[in-house]
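Encode chain A's predicted structure.
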Amino acid sequence: MNNNSRFGELKLIIANSHSKLGLDVAKELNIPPLEMESGTFQNNQPRVWRKGDVSGADICIISSLHDWQNTMGEFLQIVDSIQGASRIFGVFPFVGTGKADHPKRFGDPITYKITADLISQSGIDLGVIFDQHTSQHPYFYDTKHHRLHTVHHLYLMRILIEYARDYLNFDGILALDDGSYKRNAKISEFLKTTDVSFVFKTRDPNTLRVDINKSFIIGDVKNKKVISFDDMCQSSDTIVVGAQIAKRNGAKEVTVLIVHNDFGQNTFDILNPALQSGLIDKMIVLETIPLIRAGEWHPNLIVLSPAKFIAEVINCVHKEGHMRQFFLPIS
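Encoded structure for chain A:
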């Protein structure tokens, strides 16, 4: 791969936030990562020391911003350590705080706006974000008053759609709640199926817990192998309860495909038993965040790497190509 453009030689800085993915991306790009020393002070605050030369180069920083305080702090320090580069662009496989993009009650902060402001003011020229929780997120970034001039919003979901098309045997698509129906209905167009259902959940008015016995399916899943797509999984409650309702309504198999494995500390204890029991037959995730308790999961948790896709995006940015090539056409 020719790694030169008008911005100079492409050089890659890998943040500690997801070094495994960063190294896989470097391998796909066939370039060695720039030498950095990264660690923490005694109070666990991040510290970085850039050792490699950045003069006249096109610098890409790849950082997965999942542990907000530490990963954001590390990213800002990396940008500040770069002097004399021709251009700096950030590639963020995951940007945390995405669900905190509006106040849900009086007094709530809009934390995603804080995240976007910090990235906007960091000193990078361009950013790439993936599979944000809403399509409005790119507009949180200030491209008018800072060095940042462009934010590309791309979809790693394409990897999962193509995986389902090529490797999964399914009869229909099921949104595991009414909120994800629009996403799954759009995906059905790419997969050329009109069989789309969704779970309608009824909650107990006192406890607000989902009443599985009173919840139902809009559509028909009886004796069908269904697949469901979502942008992220955190607690896994939505997925597990949705699968219970689907199986109660006669679904033969339930397979879930997730972009961001934003698992909490208790997710393993909820999700892994569901995989072991067959309540969820398969779960496919893109490891945009380091997988918690790696090696302990049931084999039906399938982890795919987005490294090749991200490497192609980085090369496209470096060569000033057009992002349209990364979107699936509807024919």
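The CA atoms of residues 176 and 239 lie 6 Å apart.
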